[in-house]
Amino acid sequence: MTRPSLVARLAGVALAVAALAPAVAARAQQNFDTIQVRAIRVADGVHMLTGAGGNIALLSGPDGTILVDDQYAPLTPKILAAVKGVTPVPVKFLVNTHFHFDHTGGNENIAREGVVIVAHDNVRERMTKEKFYARFNRRDPPAPKGALPVVTFLDQVEFHLNGETIMAFHVANAHTDGDVMVKLLNADVVHTGDVFVRYGFPFVDSESGGSVLGMIPAIEKLLAITGPRTQYIPGHGAVATRTDVEAYLTMLRAIRDRTMAAIRQKRKLDDFVATRPLADYEAKFGASGFIKPAEILAQAWGELEAPKRK
Known about the structure:
This protein is α/β, with parallel strands linked by helices. The protein has a single domain (about 5-240), classed as Metallo-beta-lactamase, Chain A. The chain contains ten helices and 14 strands. The protein has a seven-stranded mixed β-sheet. Strands 10-11-12-13-14 form a five-stranded mixed β-sheet, with no helix packed on it. The longest helix has 23 residues, at about 5-30. It starts with 5 loop residues before the first helix and ends with a helix. About 45% of the residues are buried.
């Protein structure tokens, strides 16, 4: 019996990550009773709520409160309590940065409070459909009707509340195919969703339209519309600076450029990965974190080779 090639093995790993990441996250946080939701001030009228799952942005003021993402359903009471600890003004709008349920798990509960849920067109589309992973015989049912966004958009939508302009804009085929970032123009704060994260090398959901190569123009756009003092609320992790985002972009470009160079040299993926081509980024982004260097290199390799196979 021959040993499976690294390409085949990593392709399986990539599928496993895409299929099982939500389940693993949910299992890791089964005891939601122990989770504390904290409000961290980012700027005047802007807070980041942390608990379990993706970071939440909270914009408060007399005209109404806006949330960006809502973590898991069991945490909704704690999230709403944290909101009330910041402002007595009810939540009017909720923006979903993408469809993964560590960011949309509380949608149905939040909607029952009379909140209008807003997201990209593809978020609603993916939430309405069952997702089946044949390899693991795993089936994710459609989201309940009450959890679905009721306002969707293709490119960009703006809110005008509390003297602030809130711009939600789409970046194509990055973490998923429905990613939205939310920029608060006056506060100079951006919620990036999972296009920018601080847990290490990024998880790119290629099963749902995500692309390692697509992450690069998404981050380039983010940097193009922000400045030296912008504060970035990542999908996961601590509030970041421009320097942090620039370092993340440099890492993504290194993945693309080094992988393309190896392909042009007609090297094999197995041999390429064995040289640890991201060794200089492992200290900052982690060699043994959620996403291993070999996994994201295999994803990039597959994307870069795909045009040649057509």
